């Protein structure tokens, strides 16, 4: 029987049935059919590679359908989404695939214990993409150029060590009157210890990074690692670690002295630039000598990491080697609180570092605490539509030792002054600059509020930002040198800050320990930093957070984009909800555990005298 058209089907019906089918009913059924078709199309069209639908909270359909990109940030958001979707196509769901992708990317067999690590990841719903762990291999690579026994001995003899022996983790070192970092990291490692080989994790107990090896030395060491890569034939692979019996015999001797490299002082910028490539913009630019002069912003600044004034390559945007002006715009290079730096490569683990530092990164200790000061506790903020339409920031005036001669060069002082509506209104009225910043150039950031000089008036209603402690130096100065520009405000608990839509996050003495909390909130983080962290390879700017330049010259334009109209608000909401949804999948304690677990497998191997033939090959035997 042939297929009849709807017209033929209607004609064949008895008159009574035709009468009962009003045109309104037909239109209603047609509309329902259309909606169902669209819904099913969306289900199949936008299914994520990892096998579940994109979170309904992210308003994905509303955002990406019928959107016309007419602003640079529109394109950056689209590009970020595309990049992330392609990244997730590389997810591994089984051990043979994961091991094969490891060999392809790393040029060697995975370390012994890789199978237990992957099984735990699978059982705990971890998203495993090999590139998520690139930081481990960048950090470990130089140590392949050193003697393994020497590296192991220096790791074992450090003053604060997380030590794993026979499947048990213990923290060693005097922690009296110190923050509980050793305890927090030991607790994390203890969860993986039953599957780990004997290994030592020496930790940096300072806020500031401590290792800056000259570029030429690091390049030589990394070259040795690259030359040593080899997929060892199966019959020559060793599948068990040698252990640390030799090391323990040496370091347990009461007469054994812990190794101490030569610690340096002086200008941190001058140490940093030596770690930059010889042809980098910062290599031959000396440190600022007179910080009493106000910071100078670069003219016609158009870096390769930006697209039409907005950060596109966030990794490059954190790099001081391509931004010589940061020597006068970040407290790390002005006057850090403490400085004890070595140009020698020794094993040392820490929660953050500059791109040129040589510590081995682990999740920051404050990410492992339930302290609501950093996380906001169990409260992550109201839904987007019920939030305060504004920007909030509270914190201390950290970033280094700010004093009368240098305070105008500190990043947090710049942020707070830029969000001070009264200050900005005065600048607009008088065409003047402030102590810490200049107004962004109109030719680069041309939008109505900037042209009409109404940013200051807008900020007076929109921004709620200030210091709770000015941390002036010396302590008896009564902060007289900054009182004309800043006053101390009452603190706002993190859970109350989450009621605002926008939350800037900038460096203090080192990285900001609040970033994970911001990502897991319902607010939109605006992030600027010069510090690398463990999670960088699994977060995508403009999809999970909004990046900013470290000059903050793009701050007003970014906020204007998100607040200028309904579509800008949808963009902000989309990123905030995507960031929260994604963070809940890849920034869990389980994810931090898996990162450190895999890192320690690799560090144990690089400390093993048989490291060149040590590997996991069980998947190859399955073939």
Quick overview of this protein structure:
This protein is an alpha/beta fold and 623 residues long. Helix content is 38%, strand content 8%. It has a 5-stranded parallel sheet with strand order 9-8-10-11-12. The chain has a 3-stranded antiparallel sheet with strand order 2-1-3.
Can you characterise this structure?
The protein is an alpha/beta fold. The chain has a five-stranded parallel β-sheet with strand order 9-8-10-11-12. The protein has a three-stranded antiparallel β-sheet with strand order 2-1-3. 38% of the residues lie in helices and 8% in strands. The two termini are 53 Å apart. Helix 10 crosses helix 25 (589-606), helix 18 packs antiparallel against helix 20 (455-462) and helix 23 (555-563) crosses helix 24. Residues 1-21 and 40-57 have low confidence and may be disordered.
What is the element layout, followed by pairings?
Blueprint (H helix, E strand, L loop, with lengths): L5 H7 L2 H6 L2 H23 L14 H5 L7 H17 L6 H12 L7 H10 L10 H7 L7 H9 L4 E5 L2 E5 L8 H12 L6 E4 L12 H14 L16 H7 L16 H6 L32 E2 L2 E2 L2 H4 L13 H4 L14 E2 L9 E2 L10 H4 L12 E9 L14 H8 L2 H10 L17 H5 L2 H8 E7 L24 H4 L2 E6 L9 H5 L4 E4 L18 E2 L7 H9 L2 H21 L2 H18 L11 H4 L2
Parallel strand pairs: 6-7, 8-9, 8-10, 10-11, 11-12
Antiparallel strand pairs: 1-2, 1-3, 4-5
Helix pairs in contact: 7-25, 9-12, 10-25, 18-20, 23-24
């Amino acid at each position: 029987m042939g297929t009849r058209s709807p017209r033929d089907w209607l004609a064949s019906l008895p008159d009574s049935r035709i009468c009962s089918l009003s045109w309104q009913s037909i239109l209603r059924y047609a509309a329902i059919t259309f909606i169902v078709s669209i819904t099913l199309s969306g289900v199949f069209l936008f299914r994520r590679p990892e096998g579940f639908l994109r979170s309904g909270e992210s308003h994905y359909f509303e955002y990406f359908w019928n959107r016309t990109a007419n602003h640079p940030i529109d394109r950056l958001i689209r590009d970020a989404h595309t990049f992330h979707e392609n990244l997730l196509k590389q997810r591994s769901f089984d051990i043979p695939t994961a091991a094969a992708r490891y060999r392809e990317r790393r040029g060697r067999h995975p370390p012994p214990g890789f199978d237990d690590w992957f099984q735990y990841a699978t059982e705990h719903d971890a998203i495993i993409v090999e590139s998520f762990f690139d930081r481990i291999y960048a950090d470990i690579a130089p140590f392949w150029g050193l003697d393994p026994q020497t590296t192991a001995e220096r790791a074992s003899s450090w003053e604060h060590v997380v030590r794993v022996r026979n499947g048990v983790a213990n923290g060693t070192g005097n922690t009296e009157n110190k923050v509980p970092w050793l305890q927090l990291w030991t607790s994390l490692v203890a969860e993986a210890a039953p599957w780990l080989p004997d290994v030592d994790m020496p930790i940096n107990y300072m806020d500031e990074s401590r290792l800056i090896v000259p570029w030429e030395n690091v390049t030589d060491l990394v070259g040795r690692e690259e030359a040593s890569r080899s997929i060892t034939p199966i019959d020559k692979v060793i599948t068990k670690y040698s252990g640390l019996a030799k090391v323990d015999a040496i370091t347990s001797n009461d007469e054994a002295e812990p190794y101490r490299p030569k610690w340096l002082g002086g200008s941190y910028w001058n140490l940093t630039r030596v770690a930059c490539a010889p042809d980098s913009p910062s290599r031959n630019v000396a440190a600022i000598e007179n910080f009493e002069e106000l910071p100078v912003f670069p003219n016609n600044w158009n870096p390769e990491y930006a697209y039409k004034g907005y950060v596109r390559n966030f990794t490059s945007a954190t790099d001081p080697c391509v931004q010589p002006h940061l020597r006068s715009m970040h407290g790390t290079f002005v006057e850090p609180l403490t400085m004890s730096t070595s140009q020698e490569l020794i094993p040392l683990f820490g929660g953050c570092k500059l791109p040129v530092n040589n510590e081995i990164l682990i999740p920051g200790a404050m990410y492992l605490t339930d302290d609501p000061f950093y996380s906001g506790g169990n409260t992550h903020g109201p839904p987007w539509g019920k939030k305060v339409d504004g920007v909030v920031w509270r914190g201390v005036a950290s970033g280094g030792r700010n004093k009368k001669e240098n305070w105008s060069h500190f990043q947090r002082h710049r942020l707070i002054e830029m969000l001070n509506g009264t200050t900005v209104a005065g600048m607009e009225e008088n065409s003047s600059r402030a102590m810490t910043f200049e107004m962004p150039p109109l030719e680069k950031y041309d939008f109505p509020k900037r042209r009409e000089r109404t940013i200051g008036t807008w900020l007076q209603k929109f921004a709620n930002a200030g210091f709770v402690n000015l941390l002036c130096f010396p302590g008896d100065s009564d902060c007289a040198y900054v009182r004309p520009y800043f006053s101390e405000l009452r603190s706002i608990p993190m859970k109350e800050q989450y009621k605002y839509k926008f939350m800037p996050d900038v460096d203090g003495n080192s990285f900001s320990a609040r970033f994970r909390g911001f990502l897991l909130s319902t607010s939109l983080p605006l992030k600027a930093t010069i510090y690398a962290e463990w999670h960088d390879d699994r977060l995508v700017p403009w999809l999970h957070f909004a990046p900013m330049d470290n000059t903050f010259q793009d701050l007003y334009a970014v906020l204007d984009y998100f607040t200028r109209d309904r579509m800008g608000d949808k963009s902000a909401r989309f990123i905030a909800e995507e960031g929260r949804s994604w963070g809940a999948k890849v920034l869990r304690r389980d994810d931090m555990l898996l990162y450190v677990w895999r890192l320690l497998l690799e560090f144990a191997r690089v400390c093993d005298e048989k490291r060149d033939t040590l590997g996991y090959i069980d998947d190859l035997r399955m073939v």
